[in-house]
Amino acid sequence: MAEERRFRSASGAPIALRRRQHSASCRELAVRGPRLQLRSLSAATSAVWLAAYGLFALSENSMVLSAAIFITLIGLIIYLHFVKIDQESLLVIGSLGIQVTSSYASGKESTTFIEMGQVKDVVINEAIHMQKVIYYLCILLQDPDDPQGVSEVVPLFQSSKPRLDCLIEVYKSCQEILGQRKTAPQSS
Amino acid sequence: MVLKVFFPSCCSSADSGILIGRWISEQNSAVILAVVHFPFIPVQVKQYLGEVQRVTKVSVSVLGSWSNSKQEKEESLSEFLEDLGTIFCHEPWIQISKEGDSKFWSCSTLQKHSKNPQEEEIILVYYDQHKVMLSHLHPPLDTAGQRAEDASKLSAIFDTVARSRVLFMTDRYDEGPIKLTHWQSDGVEASIIVELMKQASVPACMLLTFLLSLLSGICRSRVLKFWPLSFLWSKLSTCEQLGHRLQHLQIISSNKKAQNQNQLMRKANIFVSLLIDVALGILLMSWLYRKNRIGHLADTLIPVADHVAEELQDLLQWLMGAPAGLKMNRALDQVLGRFFLYHIHLWISYIHLLSPFIEMILWYVGLSACLGLTVALCILSDIIALLTFHIYCFYVYGARLYCLKIYGLSSLWRLFRGKKWNVLRQRVDSCSYDLDQLFIGTLLFTILLFLLPTTALYYLVFTLLRLLVVIVQGLIHLLVDMIDSLPLYSLILRLCRSYRLAAGVKFRVLEQQDGKPLRLLMQINPLSYGGVVQTYRLPTYSCYPRDSWASLCKKLFLGELIYPWKHKGEKQN
Question: Which stretches make up the Phosphatidylinositol N-acetylglucosaminyltransferase subunit H conserved domain (chain A) (predicted)?
Answer without folding.
Answer: 89-158
